[in-house]
Structures are given as C-alpha cells and as structure tokens.
Amino acid sequence: MKIAIIAATSFEIDPLLQHLESEGRKASFFHFEYKDHEIYPLITGIGAMKTAFAMARFNEAPSLDLAINVGIAGSYNRELSLGKVVNVTSDRFADLGVEEADGSFTDVYDLELEAKNKYPYTDGALLNDGLKYSFDIPEVAALTVNKVHGTQSSIDRIRAKYSADIETMEGAGFHYACKNMDIQHVQLRALSNYVEPRNRDGWQIELAIDQLNQTVVNLLDNIAKPKEKNKAFDWL
Questions:
Q1: 20 to 30 A from 5, CA-CA: which of 16, 75, 181, 214?
Q2: What is the phi/psi pair of residue 80, to 5°?
Q3: Cα torsion for 27, 215, 155, 161, to the nearest 10°?
Q4: Percentage of the chain surpassing pLDDT 90?
Q5: 3-class secondary structure, 206
Q6: Number of domains within the chain
Q7: Cα-Cα-Cα-Cα dihedral of 164, 166, 172, 175, to 10°?
Q8: Is residue 80 part of a domain?
Q9: What is the distance between the alpha carbons of residues 189 and 184, in angstroms, rounded to a whole number?
Q10: Which of 59, 51, 78 is nearest to 174 (CA)?
Q11: pLDDT of residue 202
C-alpha cells in the first residue's frame, strides 16, 4: 500500500520515523519501504491552512491508498483518558465566523455565508463516512480551531454551540483536502490534555506521543489493502 503519514510537527512522529529507519528501508529523504508499504511522512506545519495547502501540493497525493493524519489533541470529554488514541470521524472549523457583542460566536452557516450541506460538508461538518478500512479505535467528533481554548468562559461557549469530544488545530483542513481530492483518509489523535483553563502542568505530551506512535506502527503492521470487487461477477 502507498500510505502518507501527515503531521503538523516532526516531534509528533519522531518515534515512528526512528522505527521506519531501523525496521524498514529509507528509499529517499521522506520515503520509506516498510513491510509491504510505501510510506511517505509529510510535515505540514501547524494549522489547518498549512495542512490543506501541503496536501494539495503533495506530489504523491493522487496515487495514495491512504492518508493518515496524526498528532496530539485536547479533550473536552473527561471520560477519555489522557494518552488515549482516538479516530476522528467528524470534524469542523469551529472559529470561522464572527464574535457577537455579548461574546457569543456566530459561524458562517448561521450567517448564511456558506451552505452547510454543500459538498464536502454535512450540516457544517466534515464526515469521514466513506472509509474502506476499519480500525478498532474509538471514534470521536472534533473541532478545529486556530486558537485553542484556555478560559472557562470560552470553553463553555464552544461546548454549548458544538457537540464535540476533542479539539485540534489541523484536523478539518486535512479532512477538507482529502475529501476534495478523493483520498481515503483517517485522522488519529492521542489526547495530551483536557480542554480547561490553561494549565500545562496537567499535560501528558510524552505519554500521548508514545501511545500515538505505537498505534500507528501497529496499524502499519496489520493493515491490508481492500480487495477490489471483480465487476464481471457483480451478479453473484
């Protein structure tokens, strides 16, 4: 399989890169041969805009079997333990709109500047509902933001407006690019912290990165390309 590993920063996938170098073959600067796969790590930079642009400019994109976006995330859901790896099946841009005089947020769909069900959106969200691969990883809904939430008032407002489990700074840009380019894709995130009034002392970044990379290695070790149905036997 031809697989791209998409990350905002290199440190989020450093353990994976070390594993690919030691257990696979480095074919070129960012191209590894591993098991039966061609692996292409792609570091995009932080933010949804950089992620979408990097995907659009990625030369290997048209021939990919799968694109995997990986990284750490903050969790709104306290039932999800820190370090846990989750599969984002719904994402949305959560700060595209206007701030009202009372501090509330009105998004572009409420403003009727965008059609909330125009492709690739479904009710304003980007749903990953056409994936040919299955993963035994808990599914969650995410928000993508340019500014992570760090005060209780802003957290309360965003949770009142949207129902979501986690927030990231890239996910929706990744889904938007992949859906528009018709690329099979999955977003995997490891939870490094809870979304709360900013408190770096409670973050578990090393644990999250360790669990994330272990999950990706296990995925690469076990994933197989779905068999194409022979159209000559569609009647069977």
A1: 75
A2: -95, 125
A3: 90
A4: 84
A5: helix
A6: 1
A7: -90
A8: yes
A9: 17
A10: 51
A11: 87
Task: Write out the residue range of the structural domain in which residue 52 sits.
Answer: 2-226
Interval 9-37 mean pLDDT: 95
The single-letter code of the amino acid at 149 is H
Alpha-carbon gap, residue 217 to 221, rounded angstroms: 6
Whichever domain contains 28, its CATH number is 3.40.50.1580
In this prediction the pTM is: 0.93
Residue type, 167: E
Mean pLDDT along residues 99-121: 93
Query: Cα 167 to chain center, whole Å?
Result: 10
Backbone angles phi, psi at 24, to 5 degrees: -120, -155
Residue 171 lies in a domain: yes
- Cα 70 from chain centre: 6
Q: Would you say 220 and 3 are in contact if contact means Cβ atoms under 8 Å apart?
A: yes
Tell me: the pLDDT tens digits for 202-215?
899 999 999 999 99
236 in any annotated domain? no
Amino acid letter for position 4: A
233, part of any domain: no
Q: What is the mean pLDDT of the chain?
A: 93
